[in-house]
Amino acid sequence: MFTVPNLLSAIRILLVPVFLWLVLVPEADLLAIGVLVVSGITDYLDGKIARATGKTTRLGAVLDPVADRLYILAVVVGLGLRDIIPWWLAVILPLRDVVLFSLVPFLRTRGFSALPVHFLGKAATAGLLYAFPLLLLGDGDGAVANLARVFGWAFTIWGVSLYWWAGILYAVQVRRLLASTPRSR
Hints:
One of its GO terms (molecular function) is CDP-diacylglycerol-glycerol-3-phosphate 3-phosphatidyltransferase activity. By secondary structure, the protein is mostly helical.
């Protein structure tokens, strides 16, 4: 339980409110971007270290996606409150997770608590984790801000599309699992 990968995931989770505070209170965008960069690096490292050392744990399998979802929620709330992204975008990203979370009780009827993460979901999350710092950096004037905004929106469009496509694939997996697996006791 007390492994380096789990510690890295816990640190990521603890930095979520720090990120939100930096974005909303002092509007210290560069520091907030720094927190996102640290989060991205630790996200990469926790999985890499866990697989390389054989220290994958059930706790780690829960902490890592929870940290990802918390960051996505915190960023869309922060960017939405700052009017950097439109509110419809701040709603549709967490809505996908609400839809998938509503499928968990059905999975449990078959003895599962979650589905394994697949590459498309990881790619979607990675795209969004690139998009958000760029959008934050793009909230300004000048050539760098303009370039960051363009690339930020490009990653946002791809990330949101892949995020929902992955969600649809997860829902299809749940449907197939329900059809092919008998109820557990």
